[in-house]
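2 proteins. here.
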Amino acid sequence: MSKLPVISGRECVSALQRADFRVRRQKGSHIVMQKDDPYRVVSIPNHKALKPGTLRGIINDAGLSVDEFRELL
């Protein structure tokens, strides 16, 4: 299992955009992203540094492995 990087919410959004996710909406400090094929919705807190458990949950919800996510950064 690869070690998770320490990144901000904005960096996470940029990485997911490279994986064909698009920003659907933002309410407060949370950015909701969507991918159509296969359909997935991911909520990302726009914080300066995402906690490891939060980032792992985002990666799992996006249907990616940690290694695949690291390549998108």
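next one coming up
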Amino acid sequence: MGSLDFFQGLIAIVRNHYYSVDPSEILVVDLTTWGWVLLFWGSVVALSGVGLWFRLSLARWVAIVVMVLNLIVELGFAGGHNYPLWAVATNAITILILYGLVVKWDNAGEVEHEELS
């Protein structure tokens, strides 16, 4: 998810008119600023994923908080009329990641130990 957020931000910075805004939509900052925010946020999400890769116990809780915040941020795209499929796909991936972090976390270590035996 971090790489998807990172590239969303990069696209908003490099191609300022890629994301078009209707007059009926509310945009608090301009798209270049939003691109930098997404670029930074994508890096934060990716770093939480690196912490999960190394199986740090604190990284799980940080990743849960980060992914809930990411879901809220991605809902901003769901409100847009131009890219509904992109918004649904990213929200679905975020929900699957949250499911893995919350529900399937205890089983992940057991499967790994069974394969090593």
